[in-house]
Amino acid sequence: MTQTGSVYAEALYDLALEEGLCDQALEELEALDQGFATEPDFLRLLASPALSKQERCQILDESFRGRVQPYILNTLKLLTQKGHIRRFHGCVASFRARYYREHGIVPVEAVTAVPLTDDQKQRLTEKLAAITGKQILLRDRVDPSCLGGVRLNFDGKQLDDTVAHRLEAIRAKLTNTVL
User: Are 12 and 82 in the same domain?
Assistant: First the structure.
């Protein structure tokens, strides 16, 4: 997240909060972010000095007017006019982080060697919710190098209870053991 993205995200979040549109705003921002990731040429066009600021804003109007909240469209225009449209992803990440913080949501990534079953996902989510007292947004990812167990990534922390991690700890102990 960038400083610039955070400033715009905070302002947009405050407006959405006043209007009771935070849920819809997050949904639309994430959809736009995915679209821009899929079509990076669109962001390059909006950042292009070959077009005037007015032309770039007109492109935004033609593309999104009536399809997204006016606050979001205006934020896109501001980012474009100020030359910060490439920081849109950071803006979305900052908006999402504040939304999660305000709504007591903790995104958690569970990394395992094999896919988790629905039952395992549910039990893990319930256990983490009981521990944190917050709503858990669980995303699972498969990494065969784990060998077994689970590694949890959340709030900038990592809890690693994988077989690979345990083997590495044993290797480190054996390496540092003096006979």
Answer: yes
